[in-house]
Design brief:
This protein is an alpha/beta fold and 235 residues long. The protein has one domain: Rossmann fold (3-Layer(aba) Sandwich). The chain has a seven-stranded mixed beta sheet, sandwiched between helices. Strand 2, helix 2 and strand 3 form a beta-alpha-beta unit. The longest helix has 19 residues. The relative contact order is 0.17.
Length: 235
């Protein structure tokens, strides 16, 4: 039986965070007819030591738009600066308004622990914004949205502490496409960061796939409360 169309909203602290960690999943859903939206809270404009934040920010904006098109996703840009995402009611209300406008069924964002404070702040902001977006009493300019059925957290090399792979999505058929578009980001192809993004995430997908009997998988975690299942009998 065909599944109902989904709307996936992937919210990253920096342009590139969601695409490099779970872009193959986003592309697979887009190809299946689901709506995919990327919200970058910052451009990640401070990550190039050879360019000014303004110049690199404009480059990242162009790259994000091109990669978004390759995925089949709409792309939104937040108002914040790299390294300075504010952990405030204003930022929560901003994200709540984006949730109300996009009206997602699924939200993907960062895990709760990270070596990068933008990631941990994004996690807190997004998880609280989902609640705010559902409340009639919270006025943001758009009608409330109570249709988020799942909040899941992608696996990022900067967010390893306490992350436990729980959901595995088979991306075997999407990996070559992912590799073709993720190199649209300069930080992936080298010369900006010494971290081997392409090699790491390809290898990680191979490892995650191996433990569940697939060639390539992307793993996600969920809130511990969501790991409780009530059954009448053992499956």
């Amino acid at each position: 039986m065909a599944q109902s169309p989904k709307t996936l909203l992937a919210i990253g602290a920096h342009a590139g965070d969601m695409e490099v960690s779970c872009g193959a999943v986003l592309a697979k859903h887009a190809a299946a007819g689901d709506r995919v939206v990327l919200l970058h809270l910052t451009l990640g404009e401070g990550g190039n030591p050879a360019l000014s934040p303004h110049t690199y920010g404009e480059q990242k904006r162009r790259e994000a738009q091109e990669v978004g098109r390759a995925i089949g996703a709409s792309v939104l840009f937040g108002p914040y600066r790299d390294g300075e995402i504010p952990d405030t009611e204003e930022s929560r209300n901003y994200v709540a308004e984006q949730i109300r406008q996009v009206r997602p069924t699924h939200i993907i964002t960062h895990w709760r622990n990270s070596i990068h404070r933008d990631h941990t702040r994004t996690h807190r902001i997004v998880t609280e914004a989902v609640l705010l977006a559902s409340l009639e009493a919270v006025a943001t300019g758009s009608p409330r949205h109570r249709g988020v059925t799942a909040i899941i957290f992608t696996e990022n090399w900067e967010d390893p502490e306490g992350f436990t792979p729980y959901l595995f999505v088979d991306v075997t058929g999407a990996m070559e496409r992912w590799k073709s578009f993720i190199i649209g980001y300069g930080f992936v192809t080298g010369g900006i960061s010494p971290f081997p993004y392409l090699e790491y995430y390809e290898a990680l997908a191979r490892v995650r796939g191996a433990v569940v009997g697939r060639q390539y998988c992307v793993a996600f975690d969920v809130d511990p409360f969501e790991k409780r299942h009530t059954l009448e009998f053992l499956p």
